[in-house]
Design a protein that fits this description.
The complex is a heterodimer of chains A (395) and B (285). Chain A has nine helices and 18 strands. Chain A is of the alpha/beta class.
Chain lengths: 395, 285
C-alpha cells in the first residue's frame, strides 16, 4: 500500500457563468452569437495527495471551492484540467439521504440507497439490523419516509452511508446533523473509521473539529490551495485570513506591503479612547495603517463581531487608503451605535483596491461594550409581556 | 485463472444489475403504493382496449380487418413498451437531479431502469393478452409464435438505444422531452398498428422500403405475424384484400435483420453520447 489513496494533480474546475443560460434549442440558436458567458474557476491548480489511513480536513471561507473539490474527487464533477486518482472504494457523504423516496418505507429506502451507494444485496442483508440500530429507528422502519422528521431522515441517511464500508470517505459538512447525541455518535463512527485505517477527507466549518479529528488540514481560498499541513497551523492561517486572529504576525501581509498597525475605538466628542458606550451613542473607530513605498491603494473592511466571532455588521471603505509608503489613519464614524448590546470585537482587513487580494487582516477583541440587562450580542427590541386570561386565549 | 481484480469487477457488475433491478422495483412500488388494486390497473388497460375495439370494429364497423381487437393488440402492446420506455427514460436523468448531483453511481442505470419498468408492464400485459387469446382466439397458438423472440429482441435493443440518446440529450436541451412527445404521436400513426401494412405496401410500391426503414414498423409487423393469422381478408367482389404484408417468414426476418442492425448502431451512438455528456450531468442539472 505504498501509493497514496487520493492523488490529485493540477486539478482545475471551470464553471461558465452564463448571464443567460441556453437551456433549450431555440435559446441555444438565438444565443449562439450574442451569448455572454464568463469563465469562473472554482478550482485552480490544486495538488493534493492523501495517504492511506490519513484524515484530512478541508477548510476555507464560503465559496472557496471545498465542496467542488470533494465532488471532483468523488467523481461527480469532471475536472477541466489535471488528473484525479482515487484508490479503493469511495463513499461520498455530500448530502444525507439523497435519493430517498418519500413514498417508500425506511426499510425499502435502506435497500435502495445502499444499492445506489454500491452495496450488494447480500451485504445489505448482513448490515441491515446494524443500520437500523445505528439510526435508532426500529419502531419506524416500516413507515413511509415522508412521515419521518428531518432528524430521522438524516439519521437514516448517515446510518446507510456509514455502513457502505468505504476505503476512502469524503464527507461534506454532514457531521453536524441531528441532535447533539447523534452528532457525537457520528463523530464516534468517524473515529472508528480512522482506527480501522480508512482514508477520510472532510469539509467543515467547525475549526475546532479540525484540530481534534484531523492529521492534516488543507486551506482553500478562491479555488487555490493556501496551505497544506498541521491542522493547528491551518486553522490559525485561516483565522488570520478571515481576520479573526489577534496575532499581528499571523497576518497574510507578512511581506509588509501594507499593514494594520492599530484599531482604536474613540469617543468623537473627546477624541479619547473609550470602551463603554450606550445604544445610540456617537462612536468612531480609527484604523491606522502603514505601507512600504510600493504599497498599492487599498480598501478597508471593518466587521464588528459578537460572540463566537459572529458578524454583527460590516463597513467597507473602497480605495480609502492611497498608494504609497506613508502612515494613514482611516476613521469610521457611526452617528448612532445600533440597537445591540454586549461585548464586541473588530475584524479589520486591508484589500488591494479593485482586486480581492487580502493584504493584511487582524482581529481586535473586545473593543466595544454596550451595557444592558440581557445577554451578550443580542439585539434590543421593544416588547411588552402580559398574562392573558384563559378564556381570552382559547376563543 | 481468475484474479482478484476479475472477481471484483464481476462483483461490481452484479451490484450494478442489482441496482437496476432495485430502481425498477422502486418505480413500480412508488407508482402503485397507494392504489388498492395496485398492479391490476395496468393489466386492465389492454383488456379494456381489446373489448372496446372488438365491439366497435367487430360489431359496428363490420367489414374492416377481421378480429380487429386481436390485430390491434398484437401491435399496440409492443408500441406502448417502446413509447413509455423511451418517454420515461427521457426524464429519468433530469428527474433524479438530486441524486445525480450528490451521489456517484453509474448514471446509465437511470434510463435503463425506465426501460425495465416499461418491460415489466409489457411482459405482464402480453401475459394477459395470451390468457384472453386462449379463450377467444385459439388459432393464435401455433408454431409461428417463435417470431416473437427476434421481434422482442429488436424492440428492446431499439428502445434501449433511443433511451440512452434521449435521456442524455434531454439534460442539455430540455426540449427533447417535448419534441419526443410530439414525435411519438406522429410516429405512432406512421407505424401500421391500427391499419394493415399490406395497404401501405400496395400504395407505396417501389418506395415501400422508406416506410420499412422505421424499425418499429418491422417490430410491429412481426408481432402481428406471430399472433394474428389472417394474411388477407375476403371481399365479395374482386380479389381479396391483404392485411399482413407477407404470409411467410422471409420478409419479416430480412427486415428484422435490418432493424436489428439499425438498433445496434443506435445503441452505439446512444452509448457514446451518454458517456460524453455524462461527465457534465451534475453541472447541467
Amino acid at each position: 500500500m505504498g501509493a497514496a489513496a487520493i492523488t490529485a494533480v493540477g486539478v482545475g474546475k471551470r464553471f461558465q457563468l452564463h448571464h443567460k443560460r441556453a437551456t433549450s434549442l431555440k435559446e441555444r440558436l438565438l444565443l449562439a452569437r450574442t451569448s455572454s458567458s464568463e469563465d469562473f474557476w472554482a478550482l485552480r491548480d490544486v495538488k493534493l495527495e492523501v495517504g492511506h489511513g490519513e484524515t484530512v480536513g478541508l477548510i476555507g471561507p464560503n465559496g472557496s471551492g471545498k465542496s467542488t473539490l470533494l465532488k471532483v474527487l468523488a467523481g461527480i464533477l469532471a475536472p477541466n484540467t489535471g488528473t484525479v486518482e482515487v484508490r479503493g472504494r469511495i463513499a461520498s457523504l455530500l448530502e444525507l439521504g439523497a435519493g430517498f423516496s418519500g413514498e417508500l418505507t425506511g426499510r425499502e429506502n435502506v435497500y435502495l440507497n445502499a444499492s445506489i451507494l454500491g452495496l450488494s444485496r447480500r451485504d445489505i442483508d448482513r448490515q441491515f439490523d446494524s443500520i437500523v440500530d445505528f439510526a435508532e429507528l426500529e419502531p419506524f422502519i416500516d413507515n413511509q419516509v415522508k412521515h419521518y422528521s428531518s432528524g430521522m431522515y438524516v439519521r437514516l441517511g448517515f446510518a446507510v452511508a456509514a455502513h457502505v464500508d468505504p476505503d476512502v470517505l469524503l464527507v461534506d459538512e454532514v457531521l453536524a446533523v441531528g441532535d447533539e447525541a447523534f452528532a457525537a455518535k457520528c463523530l464516534a463512527k468517524v473515529a472508528e473509521f480512522q482506527a480501522q485505517g480508512r482514508t477520510i477527507l472532510f469539509v467543515t466549518h467547525g475549526l475546532d473539529q479540525v484540530s481534534q479529528v484531523c492529521d492534516r488540514a488543507v486551506v482553500l481560498n478562491q479555488g487555490r490551495m493556501l496551505f497544506d499541513g498541521e491542522p493547528a497551523d491551518a486553522v490559525s492561517k485561516l483565522r488570520a485570513f478571515l481576520g479573526t486572529s489577534e496575532d499581528p504576525a499571523a497576518g497574510l501581509g507578512s511581506d509588509g506591503l501594507l499593514e494594520i498597525v492599530d484599531a482604536r475605538v474613540v469617543n468623537p466628542a473627546t477624541g479619547a479612547e473609550q470602551l463603554d458606550f450606550d445604544v445610540g451613542d456617537k462612536l468612531a473607530i480609527d484604523i491606522s495603517v502603514r505601507g512600504r513605498d510600493e504599497a498599492p491603494a487599498a480598501d478597508v473592511r471593518l466587521v464588528v463581531t459578537g460572540p463566537a466571532d459572529y458578524p454583527m455588521f460590516l463597513m467597507e471603505a473602497p480605495g480609502v487608503v492611497p498608494a504609497g509608503g506613508e502612515a494613514h489613519t482611516v476613521r469610521f464614524f457611526l452617528p448612532a451605535f445600533p440597537y445591540l448590546q454586549g461585548l464586541f470585537s473588530l475584524s479589520v482587513a486591508l484589500i488591494r483596491a479593485g482586486a480581492k487580494e487580502v493584504l493584511d487582516a487582524r482581529r481586535f477583541s473586545e473593543r466595544i461594550r454596550v451595557y444592558g440587562p440581557a445577554t451578550h450580542g443580542f439585539q434590543l427590541v421593544d416588547f411588552e409581556a402580559e398574562l392573558l386570561g384563559e378564556s381570552e386565549e382559547r376563543s | 485463472m481468475a484474479s482478484a481484480a476479475d472477481a471484483r469487477a464481476l462483483a461490481q457488475t452484479r451490484v450494478r444489475w442489482e441496482l437496476l433491478a432495485n430502481l425498477v422495483r422502486k418505480d413500480l412500488k412508488v407508482k402503485y403504493k397507494n392504489s388498492a388494486l395496485g398492479f391490476a390497473w395496468s393489466l386492465v388497460n389492454p383488456l379494456l382496449y381489446l373489448a372496446v375495439f372488438s365491439i366497435v370494429f367487430g360489431g359496428f364497423l363490420r367489414g374492416g380487418i377481421p378480429k380487429f381487437g386481436v390485430y390491434l393488440m398484437s401491435g399496440l402492446l409492443v408500441w406502448n413498451f417502446f413509447a413509455t420506455g423511451t418517454m420515461g427514460a427521457t426524464g429519468a436523468v433530469t428527474g433524479s437531479a438530486n441524486l445525480v448531483k450528490k451521489v456517484r453511481f453509474p448514471r446509465i442505470v437511470l434510463p435503463l431502469a425506465s426501460v425495465g419498468f416499461a418491460a415489466v408492464h409489457f411482459v405482464l400485459q402480453l401475459g394477459v393478452l395470451f390468457a384472453v387469446l386462449l379463450v377467444i382466439y385459439r388459432s393464435a397458438f401455433g408454431p409461428q409464435l417463435w417470431l416473437l423472440l427476434p421481434a422482442l429482441a429488436v424492440a428492446v435493443a431499439f428502445t434501449v438505444g433511443m433511451s440512452l440518446l434521449a435521456s442524455s440529450l434531454n439534460v442539455r436541451f430540455r426540449d427533447v422531452e417535448h419534441l419526443l412527445e410530439v414525435a411519438l404521436l406522429a410516429w405512432f400513426w406512421l407505424t401500421p398498428i391500427v391499419y394493415p401494412l399490406a395497404l401501405v405496401r400496395d400504395k407505396l410500391r417501389g418506395l415501400f422500403w422508406i416506410f420499412m426503414a422505421n424499425p418499429m414498423t418491422t417490430v410491429v409487423a412481426s408481432m402481428q405475424r406471430a399472433v394474428y393469422r389472417y394474411e388477407w381478408r375476403p371481399v365479395k367482389t374482386g380479389p381479396p384484400v391483404h392485411v399482413l404484408a407477407a404470409g411467410g417468414y422471409a420478409f419479416y426476418l430480412r427486415w428484422l435483420g435490418v432493424a436489428g442492425a439499425v438498433s445496434l448502431v443506435l445503441i452505439a451512438v446512444g452509448l457514446v453520447t451518454f458517456r460524453r455528456l455524462e461527465a457534465d450531468f451534475a453541472e447541467e442539472l
